[in-house]
Amino acid sequence: MQKTQKELLKVDNLKQYFPIKGGFFGRTVNHVKAVDDVSFTVHEGETLSIVGESGCGKSTTGRAILRLDEPTSGEIEFDGKNLLEFSKKEMRQNRKNMQVIFQDPYASINPRQTVRQILNEAMEIQNIGTKEERNDRIIELMETVGLGAHQADRFPHEFSGGQRQRIGIARALSVNPQLIVCDEAVSALDVSIQAQVINLLKKLQRDFDLTYLFISHDLGVVRHISDRVIVMYLGKIVEIADKKSLFTNAQHPYTKSLLSAIPSTNTEGKKERIILKGDVPSPIDPPTGCRFHTRCPFATEKCAKEVPTLRSEDYMEEGHMAACHYIEEIKSGEHQPTR
Amino acid sequence: MGEPNVDNNTVTQEQKPLNPRVESWKNFFKKLRKNKAAMVGGIFILFFIVVAIAGPFLTTYEPDKGEIVNKLAPPSADHWFGTDHHGRDIFTRIIHGMHLTLYIGFFSVILGATVGVLLGIIAGYYGGRTDTIIMRLMDVLLAFPGILLALAIVSVLGASLNNVIIAVAIFSVPVFARIVRGSTLSVKKLEYVDAIRALGASDTRIIFKHILPNVTSPIIVQATLNIATAVLSASGLSFLGLGAQPPMPEWGAMLSDGRNYLYNAPHVAFFPGIAIVAVVLAFNILGDGLRDALDPKMKN
Q1: Residues B161/B235, Cβ–Cβ less than 8 Å
Q2: Which positions in chain B touch A135 (Cβ < 8 Å)?
Q3: What are B43-70's pLDDT values in tens digits?
Q4: Confidence (pTM)
Q5: Which domains does chain B have, with CATH numbers?
Q6: Do A110 and B132 touch (CB under 8 A)?
Q7: What is the per-residue pLDDT across A172-221, written as a single tens digit (0 to 9) for each?
Q8: Phi, psi (rounded to 5 degrees) for B14
Q9: How many helices (H) and strands (E) does chain A have?
Q10: Which residues of chain B have a Cβ shorter than 8 Å from any chain A Cβ?
């Protein structure tokens, strides 16, 4: 159910390695390969989610796209322009097109500024409007995100977590962005507040034609808000698909085990829980071949040697791709668990 | 444009927002008041400041004109703290010296803190090579014992009161740089700094509007404690003849003069010594109290 097919954001072979310093002179002794060769496209007006467990590189991907961290290599094209070629100054001017909403509503706003100051500063940085225009817009923004205009001169500590998150959303909206990266934007909130904020995000998307890159570990939330979903494991994309296709017809063994972890209210048709053994391996020295092979129930020798690429099979829906050597064989039952 | 604004103004007037700065100051004073030692230190410092300002009006003697016939007189009703080897009234000289002492203490700390805070915030914010270069330089300064470094600086610049201030400021720079760097490292990792960066804010704006206001409390504590150190070092330098030059009523210099008469006129050295101890102690106690009161972990 993609609304338009225009590519807004194109990420190509993105790599983000963080150096580990050690030794006598602080030499780089190794790298944490947080994101390793990731490519995907975000279409205008859609919500693309990235899911995965902690440390799989989903937040790092978001931060690299915003250039909050400088990516090691790769290309990030936004609206046809390569972001990584921008100078610091050009990048600052272009930042109004892409904004971010953070996870922790208590850490993401400066405790020493009032809501008015926060929103005003955001617009001031991007030279939006005159002082009077900005003042009017602050009131408008607050009403848009469901806060009262009379709360504009309050400080963050006078708001609840959900309200603070709304302030964060208002700040992101203040500069009229096209893309908003929601980095675990609702994970820190209570379930009831989560629903309100998600519905707010959906409403804003309709009203302002926003595109979301929604980073989350919560499959329930992702199922509710996304158009397409990317599943990441240890710095790589293992599966990418339409929401519907992913939740009903998952191909990669890792995705299947993730989906089996969603609690179900259906007591009759009890589904099988796939429990993975062991921990996520270290991203400093990731496993060879398929990174999931150390925990995959279907792993063979081939998996330890050859890196699987994202590919599609005939019976899969268009745009559905998974990175596994044995998609077909597992589907047909030809390849049974090896452990 | 008119209506919503008017409406909004009336609302804000009705329910005054609680300013967290005002709130945290209130909270801070509540905690400080409970700390009796700190309050005593604070009251003494206020007293010292008043004396420093009102000094010339408090006594009838001149600080640098003595009656030589009356030299080394013990404390009496006329001369409360006695007289020195030139017959100058020691009480008058101590009161005039208060001004000098506080002047040295405040100015050297303001100078040292400004430079140290800037260096520390730059090192902490930019990290990497900038950080390494700045902090290794600070380590070099820290490796010298403070008074030795000050001695070296004064002997290069020449003995004078202003050079003492510069010397004391230089050796307090690394202390501030280290503290501020540490706080900056923790503040810059907060999400709101990333958020403001994602909005396109310049480094200068982030450093001065968003990081500096959130690292002030350790700076205040360190500054208070450093005034004590500065006073002590400056007196030490003057004692050695490298600071204030005679006939300036500097306490260290007075102490040094009194040294020759310790046996037959101990009061000449005693009173300047007590004055130094009182000021240093007051600032130290206040500094410790401030640290406790500003520590967010010590709730009430």
Answers
A1: no
A2: 5
A3: 999 999 999 888 778 877 888 777 878 8
A4: 0.81
A5: 100-300 (1.10.3720.10)
A6: no
A7: 999 999 999 999 999 888 888 999 999 999 999 999 999 999 999 988 89
A8: -60, -55
A9: 11, 11
A10: 1, 4-5, 7-8, 11-12, 15, 17-21, 132, 190-192, 194-202, 205, 209-210, 213-214
